[in-house]
Backbone:
DNA sequence: CGGTATCCGAAATGATACTG
DNA sequence: CAGTATCATTTCGGATACCG
């Protein structure tokens, strides 16, 4: 997990929300979560195409952080050419599920912008 | 709302999650949401004390963005000395509720770090 | 194919001083 | 009290080139 200066970190935080925010706190992470939930066992290049605009560097670093956070599983097959597949862990699936109400809130708000 | 380069923005995003992520996409925003949910009608200085480490500038700009996003309501009483109270709007309360599963996920994970 | 290394610019945050 | 203004710093993400 990245070592950042968490708001409520030092003296113990009041709710678990900031813990979760760190895990999803990258520009593409929730999209990676979403993509891997819909398309398990995705290869690096495929994932890249599923997320238009992401660069190799950022995708790779996000995936490594998410792997370190235990939400993404990386499976490397020792073949030529190399093949690597990414999926969500159980915890990653639960995280994605926990994101659902937030997605609903966002969709509702998009549907009713004013009043 | 802040104008950022949203991942799925240009061609329409797949889920509402990134819309929500923008609204809570500030270092202290979820904590502000949480604090205002537990302590409605909080004044600027009180809020600042509720969020140890936040600076005036960041708190003020976050509050203004959240107000613009319609999740925070600012009420200014024309008195001397000045008094301003912040609360969540209905939408802000819903957002905070939508954050609950995420907070649960974070708390569970803190409780069970490894398996 | 699946990455890593380096450099760079933008954006977010922080420190401090000042104001109505 | 409740901010704003300015400047410094940090962090993140993007572009590009290269490697096993």
Residues:
């Amino acid at each position: 997990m990245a070592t950042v200066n968490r708001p409520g970190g030092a003296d113990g935080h009041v709710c678990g929300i900031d813990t979760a925010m760190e895990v999803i706190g990258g520009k593409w992470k929730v999209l990676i979560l979403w993509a891997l939930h819909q398309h398990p066992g995705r290869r690096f290049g495929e994932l890249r195409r599923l997320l238009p605009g992401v660069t190799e560097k950022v995708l790779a670093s996000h995936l490594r952080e998410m792997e370190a956070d235990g939400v993404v599983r990386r499976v490397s097959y020792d073949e030529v050419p190399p093949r690597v597949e990414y999926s969500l862990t159980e915890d990653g699936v639960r995280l994605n599920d926990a994101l659902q109400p937030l997605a609903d809130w966002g969709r509702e708000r998009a549907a009713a912008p004013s009043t």
